[in-house]
Write a structure and sequence with these properties.
The protein is α/β, with parallel strands linked by helices. The chain has one domain: Vaccinia Virus protein VP39 (Rossmann fold, 3-Layer(aba) Sandwich). It is built from 11 helices and 7 strands. The chain has a 7-stranded mixed β-sheet with strand order 3-2-1-4-5-7-6, with helices on both faces. Helix 4 links the parallel strand 1 and strand 2. Helix 9 runs antiparallel to helix 11.
């Protein structure tokens, strides 16, 4: 296990501070996949279930495969009132089943699965003509307060050697869409479709530092360095009272 181990160590923070994905993305996935209560759905990497509930609420049988023991237990309890939901605590690479699924989805998790395994394995697990949907949330600090943004960017360059500089979102999405559509086509998917969604969140310093505790590359820093990094970000945000996060959510779907 690599940096993904940090998710299992911060379950409550993950559930509290990681975003959901808005309403439209679920409507789009369910419209394409035509899920009914008779359907079977597989989720890969459910985490704390931040993307899970809309699929459970269709009445379909939903199975979530989750690597982290604490995450799996938490999410099983979180949705324990739904008899059509279960969590399997194991790596997706070891998940064996005779079931076939009408929809397989993964929310900000599928990049942890090796490409040459994940896409063909999902293709095997899908029933004919049905859907794989993978999506991610990419948060960035909003341009609404450029002074705050630039000060935080400087800290990222200093402590994480990671750029949070501006990008052209249209170019970024076009590149990602071409990449995921190429991969899906390579492994036999058709009717390829990519969509982009936007959302914003406003967070105070405490909530933003809580969010940072759910990022594996941040938690992989040595504790002394991480504490300095987080402390300086906390101080900067406290000066401005809050920080605005711009969420960019990209969805990529393919049909077997």
């Amino acid at each position: 296990m690599g940096n993904e181990k940090y998710f299992d160590q911060n379950v409550l923070m993950y559930d509290q501070y990681r975003p959901t994905y808005g309403k439209q993305i679920y409507e789009d996935i369910l419209s394409v996949s035509k899920i009914t209560p008779a359907s079977r759905i597989l989720e890969i990497g459910c985490g704390t279930g931040n993307a899970t509930l809309p699929f459970i609420q269709t009445g379909a049988q939903v199975t979530a495969v989750e690597l982290g023991e604490n995450l799996a237990g938490y999410t099983a309890e979180k949705f324990s009132d739904y008899p059509n939901f279960k969590v399997v605590n194991m790596p997706f690479e070891k998940y064996k089943t005779d079931d076939k699924y009408h929809l397989i989805f993964s929310a900000t998790a599928f990049h942890w699965i090796e490409t040459g395994f994940g896409y063909p394995r999902c293709h095997e697990l899908l029933t004919d003509d049905d859907i794989l949907a993978v999506f991610w949330n990419t948060p960035r600090i909003s341009n609404q307060n450029l002074d705050l943004k630039h000060r935080i960017q400087e800290l990222y360059h200093e402590y994480l050697d990671d750029s949070t500089d501006d990008i052209n979102v249209d170019e970024w999405f076009e590149k990602r869409s071409k990449n995921y559509q190429y991969i899906m086509n390579l492994y036999g998917y058709r009717d390829l479709n990519s969509k982009i969604y936007f959302d914003t969140r406003v967070m105070n310093a405490d909530r933003y530092i809580g969010l940072l505790h759910t990022y594996s590359n941040h938690m992989a820093l040595p504790k002394s360095k991480r504490d300095l990094f987080f402390g300086k970000i906390y101080a900067v945000i406290s000066e401005y009272k809050s920080v605005i996060i711009s969420d960019t959510i990209d969805l990529h779907m393919g049909r077997k």
